[in-house]
Each structure stands twice: as C-alpha cells, then as structure tokens.
C-alpha cells in the first residue's frame, strides 16, 4: 500500500488522499479498533461531526469537535431519517435531518440494515468526494466490527433459530419438542410468550435483524429471549415474567433506539408445547393492534376480548353483507367527524346529547345526521336489533381494515 500511495501521490494528489483514507480504515479494522476509535478517525479525517449507531450490538457514538458522546439519543434523528427515506446499501446519500445536511451510509450485514453512519456538515459546507468515501468506509468498518461482536456472543450463547421456528409453527411430538427445546437453549420448566413484530415504516430493516434486536432488548431485562423469522413475520419467544411488559413498552416507545417504532402483538403465556397457539394469538393481536392499543403500545391477546371472536368470522361472509358494504361506502366519505364516527358515538353513548359531546357537535346536528345515515343504510335505529346489527357491522369493518393494514 505504501508503494501504491507513493506512485499515486506523484500522479494525482486527490487519488492519493482517497487511498490514504482506505488504508487508514483497513488498518483500523485489522487492529480491531473500537467503535469510538472508528468514529474519531472519521471525524479527524473530515474535520466534521461523525457518528454511528450499531443497533445489533446496541452501541452508538458521535465525535463532535473531537469530544466523544455516547447514549441512546445519539444519532436517533439520523436513524429515523434513513428509515423513513428507505435508505439502503452502503453508498452515501445526503439527507436533510433536524441538524441540517447529513451524509449517511447504512451499516449493512447479511441480515440487512442494522445501523447507520453519518457526517454532519457545518452550515454552508458542501460535501466532497472524500467525505462520501469516509462515511462509506466508516459504515463498512462498523459492519465488520458488528459481525465480529455477534460471532463472539454466538460462540458462548448460540441457539438454533430453526428450532424456535419449529416451536412456533405447530404442535410437536414429545421427542421433537425435547429436541427443539435443547436446540433453542430454552428451559422446559419455564413458561414462555410468543411475540409478533412489525415495523413502522415497513421494510426499514430486514426481519432477521428486527427479531434479533427485539430479543436482545428483552434479554437486557433479565429474560431469556430467542428471535426468529416465521413466514413473513419477525418473531420472538421470551420467558414470561413481570419485566416483560416493561421491556416491550420500551421497545414500542417513541425513543426506541433503532429509530423505528416496533409494532408488537403478544400471545398468552404457555409452556413450550403450547407456543404454536400463543404464536397464532400474537399474530392476531398484532393484526388488531389499532383497535386495542391505538397509541402504539404493545397489543396483548388477552385484551382483545370479543374482538377475538369477531375476527374468526370468515372475511368473505363479512364483505358479502349488504349492510357491511353500505357502511363501507359511508366510511369513505370525507368530513370530521365522519358519519361512521357520529353513528358509533350514538350507539355507544345511547343519547343524542352524549353523542354530540363526544364528537363536538350540537345534539340537533347529530339528530339530523342520524336521519340521513338511517336512509343510506336502510335501517331504523329505534329498533334494538337494528342497532345491534349496525354496531356489529362497525366492529367487523374496523377488524377488516386493521388486518388489511397489517
């Protein structure tokens, strides 16, 4: 490399600079430099703020004027911007974040994007080709370091994800259950919960990385957790315990470290032999999450109540109902509140005045709108059975749309 640098320097100073950057990062990787040392190197070369978030290993750092900062909040705005704009691959891209122009490169491993590396430019500074090279090499170096750290942990606490899939996908014979339990490195005497996860925005990282991040976050609360991918869904099997709710609330929270908001459905606690049932319930809770946890909190199967029974009604039978179709047309109309919201408020509150207070309308306005709604639906809301049928159709419409979104 020294001879290449000497020859390049004689011919083109800029090319020599690029080769020096490559050489410096190669040496840092070979020396197994820490994440902090890699960040400092990028900052020293470019003279601007440099930072990384390695979500697989839950470490993050940023060098501002040579001063190193670490913590959960480090680079969260950059990670969110990369997720929202579907940034993929290690090629650097300029993004506009809350802190201004930011040059970002993804940290990519076989499982997909597991973090980001970035440079922050002072106002008025334009990005140079060297800056692009530095942030791309920083992302590559951190990816190499992330893989090494994961491999070291795997040697001491390895488990077979395929065994976790077998536990979730169907009831096993006693012999197969015992074998899967051993390979998943779980205890047959403990009770476990199946957890289904989705991402917001969708597709920001690969499912394997999402399940791995979630399992690691739960494990930090002292609970055994194993991640896997089942079909098109990220899955986690976690030991049941008081700490689990707190761990899942943190994972779904606004300050979730990956810059994503994990959408979570939680099955019921069971022994290992019943995990396939818990997994089905977790998927159902995830599908109906908006109806029981609209604020983004984890949705628990035991909170579904009658929604679980209604969700079993075949979708074809529901969509073929004339009342359901007319209600769907009604819900598509614009306005605030919508006719469906006015109708639902009246059916749940029982009086015009209480319904009006709920949707911020005068009770006479609610009365006039209900008359119009009755005509369009072809029902008489003064009849108890008609009210029941309409209320049931509203719930089925909400279930249909919630599961479609998921």
Write down the CATH topology of the largest domain.
Beta-Lactamase
Q: What would CATH call the homologous superfamily of the largest domain?
A: GAF domain
Q: How many individual helices? A: 18
Strand line-up in the sheet with most strands: 3-2-1-6-5-4
Our measurement of the CA-to-CA distance between the termini, rounded to an integer number of angstroms, reads 52 Å
Number of strands: 11
Strand coverage percent: 15-25%
Helix content range: 40-55%
The structural domain count equals: 3
CATH architecture of the largest domain: 2-Layer Sandwich
Q: What is the CATH C level class of the largest domain, in words?
A: Alpha Beta
Computed Rg: 27 Å
Structural class: alpha+beta
- How is the main sheet built? 6 strands, antiparallel
Outline, from the CA principal axes? flat
Low-pLDDT stretches: 1-5, 255-259
Sequence of secondary-structure elements: HHHEEEHEEEHHHEHEEHEHHEHHHHHHH
Mean pLDDT: 84
Outline of the structure:
The chain is of the alpha+beta class and 406 residues long.
Describe this structure in words.
With 406 residues, this protein is an alpha+beta fold. The chain has 18 helices and 11 strands. Residues 1-5 and 255-259 have low confidence and may be disordered.
SSE map:
Elements: H1 2-11, H2 13-30, H3 35-46, E1 49-54, E2 59-64, E3 67-70, H4 76-84, E4 93-97, E5 100-109, E6 112-120, H5 129-157, H6 161-169, H7 174-184, E7 192-198, H8 207-219, E8 225-230, E9 233-239, H9 242-252, E10 263-266, H10 275-287, H11 289-292, E11 299-300, H12 306-311, H13 315-319, H14 322-331, H15 339-349, H16 352-359, H17 363-377, H18 384-405
Parallel strand pairs: 10-11
Antiparallel strand pairs: 1-2, 1-6, 2-3, 4-5, 5-6, 7-9, 7-10, 8-9
Helix pairs in contact: 1-2, 2-3, 2-5, 3-5, 6-7, 14-18, 15-16, 15-17, 16-17
